[in-house]
Each structure stands twice: as structure tokens, then as C-alpha cells.
Write a structure and sequence with these properties.
single chain; alpha+beta; Tetrahydropterin Synthase, Chain A; 2 domains; about 45% helix
């Protein structure tokens, strides 16, 4: 064996050891970074939970409404209601609305229950419509709020315990001395309210 070959063999072994050591150091650093991120997330969640307890069980950020998850394979079940004609809450003039409503159901078996409670459902929807003004209902946000209210009122007529919605301007007035704990929103049998007709005159 020549002297050059003898020197090359230890050099190759030294390079392999160096690569293994560098790889081990990089792996340790990566694991340490992942552990640090996990610990920071846990401490942030714990701080948020502690802040929520101090605020009377409510989180500082407003709760987003549940979005109904639709199974693309499931065939939706709809119940169209007879059109509603109602006087609106405008004080300066006589305004009325003609509204066509279709209810989207979480389960097709709810349809028989809706037909049984139809007088109560129509009454609750008429009351919700008559509380609104023409200006509120002409805006998209007003229609969205009305659909959410009809969803709650219809579910309430079916016997679901739906918590009362707090008015949006309640917080703008005097802040309450003691905040009430917000009830968890139950799963409603009405997953969505669709307007098939909406005329305001």
C-alpha cells in the first residue's frame, strides 16, 4: 500500500464522522425548536383561558357563528313555507314586506315536526318580521340577521332551548357590572333559512 493511499483512508473516515456529528447537531436543534414552539403555544392557550375566567367565562373576541357543514353526498331536505305579508316597524310611513322563506333541515325527519308546529312557527316568524324596519331589511346585513333570528325562532318553536340573542348595542351603552356566562349554542334542527322572495313596499 502506498503512503498516499494510507493518508486518504483516515481522511475519509474523518469526513464521515464530521458529517454524522453535524447531522446529529442539526437534528437536536430542530427538535429543540419544535419543543419551544409547542411550549409557547401551550402557555399562550393557558394565558387565554385564565383571561377568559377573569372576564366571567367570556373570551374577549366575539364568538363567530357556527357554520353548517354540508356533506356533499347527503341530499339536503328543504321545507318551503307559505309566503308572509307583514307590516314593518317603520313609524314615519306605512311599509310592508312580502317574504318567501324556505327552511333547510338538519334531518329529513324534522319535516313532520315542522308541519305539526306550523302555527307556532308562522307566528314566531311574523313577529320577527314585524320587528324590522324597511331600512334594516333592504341591507344585506339586515337580511342575514333576520335569517339568523328566524332560524332561532323556528328552532325555539320546535322545543329547542335557544339562548336569547344579546342586542348588538347593549355593550355600547353601560357595561354590565357582572358579565353573564354565555351559553353554548345548541345544534339547531334548522341549518339555514333561505329567502325565495323578498319584496319591500
Amino acid at each position: 500500500m502506498s503512503a498516499a493511499a494510507a493518508e486518504a483512508a483516515p481522511a475519509k473516515k474523518g469526513n464521515k464522522k464530521l458529517i454524522i456529528i453535524i447531522g446529529a447537531v442539526v437534528a437536536v436543534l430542530l427538535l429543540g425548536g419544535v419543543a419551544a414552539v409547542v411550549m409557547m403555544k401551550k402557555s399562550a392557550a393557558a394565558a387565554e383561558a385564565a383571561a377568559a375566567e377573569e372576564d366571567g367565562g367570556e373570551k374577549a373576541a366575539p364568538k363567530k357563528p357556527k357554520v353548517a357543514k354540508h356533506d356533499p353526498k347527503a341530499v339536503p331536505s328543504f321545507v318551503p313555507l307559505d309566503p308572509f305579508t307583514v307590516n314593518l316597524a317603520d313609524r314615519d310611513s306605512e311599509r310592508y314586506a312580502q317574504v318567501g322563506i324556505t327552511l333547510e333541515l338538519a334531518d329529513a325527519t324534522v319535516e313532520a315536526q315542522i308541519k305539526a308546529f306550523m302555527p307556532v312557527i308562522r307566528n314566531n316568524i311574523l313577529l320577527a318580521l314585524s320587528d324590522s324596519t324597511a331600512a334594516e331589511l333592504m341591507a344585506r346585513d339586515g337580511k342575514t340577521r333576520l335569517a339568523a333570528r328566524i332560524q332561532r325562532e323556528t328552532s325555539r318553536a320546535l322545543g329547542v332551548d335557544v339562548p336569547e340573542e344579546e342586542p348588538a348595542d347593549a355593550e355600547a351603552e353601560d357595561p354590565p357590572k357582572k358579565k353573564r356566562k354565555r351559553q353554548a349554542e345548541p345544534d339547531l334542527p334548522i341549518t339555514a333559512v333561505h329567502f325565495s322572495n323578498f319584496i319591500i313596499q
